[in-house]
Amino acid sequence: MEDYKTLDFDILPVGASRLDGVDLSNLAFGKVFSDHMFVMDCVEGVWQRGEISAYGPMTFSPAMMSLHYGQAIFEGMKAFRQKDGTVSMFRPGENIKRFNLSAQRMGMPEMPEDTFFQALVELLKLDINWVPSHADSALYIRPFMFATESHVGVRPSKKYRFCIFTCPVGAYYTKPVKVKVELHYTRAAEGGTGGAKAAGNYAGSLFPTELAKSQGYDQILWTDAATHQNVEECGTMNVAFVLGDTMVVPQTSDTVLAGITRASAVALMQQQGVKVEERKVTVQELVEAAKNGTLKEAFGLGTAATVSSICTLGLPEVDWDLPPVESWVIAPKVKELLDGVRYGSGEDHFGWNIPI
Ligand SMILES: *Cc1c(COP(=O)(O)O)cnc(C)c1O
Question: 322: Cβ below 6 Å to ligand 1?
Answer without folding.
Answer: no
